[in-house]
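Example (one chain per record):
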Amino acid sequence: MAWDINSLSGVFGEDNTFVVSKEGECLIVTNEDGVDAFVSVCGSQIVMEVSLFAASSVSDVNVLNAEILKTHQLLPLSSICVSEIDGTDYYLAFGALSSESKAETINIEVETLFQNVPDFLEAYRDHLK
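Predicted structure:
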C-alpha cells in the first residue's frame, strides 16, 4: 500500500507520545519535547524534516558545511540539508523512505530522526554564533 498524508496521520496517531496535526499537504508530528517534524509524501517518497537552526546563526557556513559532509553519516537514518523557509535558509535534519514502507518502518524513521536532533545540535554547536 502506498501511503498518503491522510493515511499517514493514523500511523503517527498510534503512538500517544506524538501530537499530529495537518497543515495543507504536510503533517506536523510533535514529540514529547515539543520538537516538530514536518512529514510529506512526495511521489514515491515519504520525507520527514526537523529544523535545526537558521543559517544566519552559523559563524562560518563554509566550515560548517565541510564538517557536515564529513560527519553526518555518523547518525543513523538521518542526513542534513539546507532549505529555504519563508525566505530564510535553515539547516534541517531529514529522513526519507519509500511511500510503500510498512507502518513500523515509518515510526522507526521518525523516532530515529527525533533522537538524532539533539546529537546533530551537539555535534555542530561550536559553529553557531
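Caption: Strands lie at 19-23, 26-30, 36-42, 45-54, 79-85, 88-98.
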